[in-house]
């Protein structure tokens, strides 16, 4: 799509993300991998698909982020900028310093949405002729989200209680005069919005979006990303046994090996150099990241298996996250159905389009080890580097 004006993208990459523990002791949240790519890749890719040629990424570790994502975007001018301070106001204040011209699309680096949402926001902004556009979406429970209060004065505030309303999607489109106002008010978005009272455009997005604030949000992100997968794609450099069963849609990346009798029932992603053993079953919105290993007769469903993680023979991993380089020994079972009457949304803000998560298995940090034949109760969190002895019952 071509716009008759210069449009520049800014992605707020953030930092470690303390709410993402125990997954982030060694990497920042933007670099957690989903479907073989870092989390921050997805908002950047949406901006690239809009036709933007210049994108700034503001993050705590700009060199590392740049090295991770730059490989995917040849021909795009990617500028990686170190963030001063960990809050949104600090990042917003910097935008006018690094950009300061044309139309700027600001996007959170940890929000996953379809490219259509970005297109809707930009078209609405261009047609409105106003200096700033905010993209919001309706939610039945706003706890933990930024609420857009579009009354006489537009305000954006974090919500701590259960209530319905409109959530900020993390997309804001601004002209130079609004960016200058942000800097004048030290990055305070509400002070800048007051300055432009009556001259603010509000765009409404009614599709899906996932704000990755907590580990289990990654599972929702996988589900929605795979929902766009309409066909099976098997790399010619993979090794799939003729006695394996592949029921699409499935992505099997290069170097992956699928052994005899394995069943892959999509939507599923199997990463580079991953291995799926004899008679294993991989199904329903699962992502096996690079060099992960799934033992014979294991079953994986609705889960994220991290880089170089191993799941042993005969284990069942459901609605769970297994951190990078962790080991699940043979025969481990994760229980993933929450007790009757208990909703994850009451423990923390994980509502996706107004629906509570009904299942949640284990959240296992990097380099942990769970001993053979252990049973892990729903919602259990295992810290990084922790060792769980065999035959344990973890409640």
Descriptive notes:
- The protein is an alpha/beta fold and 395 residues long.
- The chain folds into 2 domains: 7-213, Spore Coat Polysaccharide Biosynthesis Protein SpsA, Chain A (Alpha-Beta Complex); 227-394, UDP N-Acetylglucosamine Acyltransferase, domain 1.
- It is 17% helix and 31% strand.
- It is built from 7 helices and 37 strands.
- The chain has an 8-stranded parallel β-sheet, covered by helices on one side.
- α2 (62-69) links the parallel β4 (54-59) and β5.
- α3 packs across α5 (176-184).
- The longest helix is centred in the first third of the chain and has 14 residues, at 115-128.
- The termini are far apart.
Map the helices and strands:
Blueprint: E1 7-14, E2 33-34, E3 37-38, H1 41-49, E4 54-59, H2 62-69, E5 77-82, H3 88-98, E6 103-108, E7 111-112, H4 115-128, E8 132-139, E9 146-150, E10 154-158, E11 165-174, H5 176-184, H6 189-195, E12 200-204, E13 210-211, H7 217-227, E14 233-234, E15 239-240, E16 245-247, E17 250-252, E18 257-258, E19 263-265, E20 268-270, E21 275-276, E22 281-283, E23 286-288, E24 293-294, E25 299-301, E26 304-305, E27 310-311, E28 316-318, E29 321-322, E30 327-328, E31 333-334, E32 363-364, E33 369-370, E34 375-376, E35 381-382, E36 387-388, E37 393-394
Parallel strand pairs: 1-4, 1-6, 4-5, 8-12, 14-17, 15-18, 16-19, 17-20, 18-21, 19-22, 20-23, 21-24, 22-25, 23-26, 24-27, 25-28, 26-29, 27-30, 29-32, 30-33, 31-34, 32-35, 33-36, 34-37
Antiparallel strand pairs: 2-3, 6-11, 7-13, 8-11, 9-10
Helix pairs in contact: 3-5, 5-6
